[in-house]
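User: Need the bound-state model for zinc ion:
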Amino acid sequence: MFSSSYLDRNILCVDSLNVEELPMGCKTRLLVGLVHDGLGRAMRIPVIAVRGARPGPVFGITAALHGNELNGIPVVHRLIDSISPETLRGTLVAVPVLNIPGLVRHEREFRDSTDLNHIMPGVADGNESQVYAYRLTSRVVGAFNYLADLHTASFGRINTLYVRADLDEPTTARMAMLQRPTIILHNPPRDHTLRGWASAEGAPAITIEIGDPHVFQPKKVRRTLSGLRALLTQMKMLPRRAHPTPPPPVLCEASRWIYTDRGGLLRVNPELGELVE
Ligand SMILES: [Zn+2]
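Assistant: Bound-state model below.
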């Protein structure tokens, strides 16, 4: 059983996520201890786990690994609110905010200016951000059999709703198609991303890029939620029910940046998501 104490009546403080210890047929709110700050105060990340009444896979949904990327947070909360543990097969684990210092500071990076999605799975005895990343992976994300990691565009950029996935890998290709975004980008995971690490550990993983940073965009949040519900239904984790089916996604084999060697203001003529020759 849990060796840790209760912070309050509803939230359990633990040192790591252990799905097998969670009660079946319940939603459990946890705070998982990661590091301590300069005053010795514990930094714990919130985790909401719904362990279904029937056994099955552990599906993890994570958001705000970049602290200024907000759209994934309401997706996580609304998905958890809508799920009934009695009808769930397996366990859904939601982490609304992976990068707590970044969220508090409205910044993409961790508080030592490190991009956490470039250093996964961290280092057990490394510097502050490396230790934080190591404990995120070893104490939380390592418990997942599947991962959907929710992001947005970076600061100063805009995105459609698109999915990054390795389309050469049948499971991740299927996860991406079921999400039914506007665009799917074939993108074998790079080393040191959370998606790359999870995939290498045997947990098929996709990255969902939900629009723009620093804002909440209700339409894109709703569409992401709908895609995740369709995905979980196809995996037989949720009971079958009708889902809206958006138009089929555009499949991109690769992406690249276009640079200019001139200064001045740039005017971009195509609309976001528009097909160009
Ligand atoms: Zn991001």
